[in-house]
Amino acid sequence: MNPTIELLKSHRSIRKFTDQPVSRELLEELVSAGQAAATSSHVQAYSIIHVKKPDNREAIAELAGGQRYVATCGAFLVFCADMKRPTEAAERTGARVVRGMTEQLLVASVDTALMAQNMAVAAESEGLGICYIGGIRNNPQQISDLLGLPEHVYPVFGMCLGYPAHDPDVKPRLPVEAILKEDSYQDDSELVAVFDDAMHAYYQSRRGGPKDSNWSQNLTPLFDTKLRPHMRDFLVKRGFEMK
C-alpha cells in the first residue's frame, strides 16, 4: 500500500484526547485541505463553526447525547450545509434565485461531507484523531440557535479534533465484494452473514472490552424506530423546503 491508502485504512474514531490544543495555524491548514475537496459546480456550500467557548461546548455535548469528548477535545467544529452564501451571491448578480429546492439540500449536504472528510484525512496525517458527531442532529434547532445559524444554513454534524489519548482497534468493514457490484445490483446477504461473524469476533476481542453483538444487530436501533423524525420539519423551517 502507498502511504495515503495505508492512512485511510487505519482510521479509528478517537474519543479520548490529551490536553494539547490544536493550533490555529494547523486548523487553518486543515480547513484549506478540506476546501480542496470536490464541490458541485464550485458552489462550496458549507461553513464551519469553530466552537471555542467552554459553556457552548458543554451545552453541545449534552444536546448531542451526552458525548463528553465534545467538551474535552482539542478543537470542536460544527460543519454546516450553507446555501445562504451561494444563493445570495447569485442574487447580487441580478439572478432571480429560486430557493428551497431538494437538489440544493443535497448539494449542500454532499459538499459539506466531502469537505469534512478531506479535513479528517488531513488531520490524521498530522497525528490528530477525529470523531464525527452525528448527535448534532438530535437537537438541531437548539444548536442552530446557540451558534446563530441563519436561514438556509443547517448543522450537518460535528467533528472532535485532538491528539489521541487512547489507541482503539481499527473496526472491520464490509468485504469489498459486498460493496463493489458489477454492472447491476446483486444480493449480498451471504457476504453480510460472513461479515456478521467477523464483527462478532472483533467485538469479543477488542481492546475496549468485549461485546456480544454483530453488525446486523447493531443496526436494529437505527431502523426499528423513526430516527430523528424532527429533521424534515426542521429543514423546512431552515428554508430547505425540498420542493
Automatic annotation (TrEMBL):
Gene3D superfamilies hit by this protein: NADH Oxidase (3.40.109.10)
Top-level taxon of the source organism: Bacteria
Residue stretches making up the Nitroreductase domain: 9-163
Listed InterPro entries: Flavin_OxRdtase_Frp (IPR016446), Nitroreductase (IPR029479), Nitroreductase-like (IPR000415)
E.C. no: 1.5.1.38
The UniProt record lists the keyword Protein biosynthesis: no
Top-level EC class: oxidoreductase
Entry similarity comment: Belongs to the flavin oxidoreductase frp family.
Protein name: Oxygen-insensitive NADPH nitroreductase
Naturally occurring in which organism (per UniProt): Halomonas icarae
Gene: nfsA
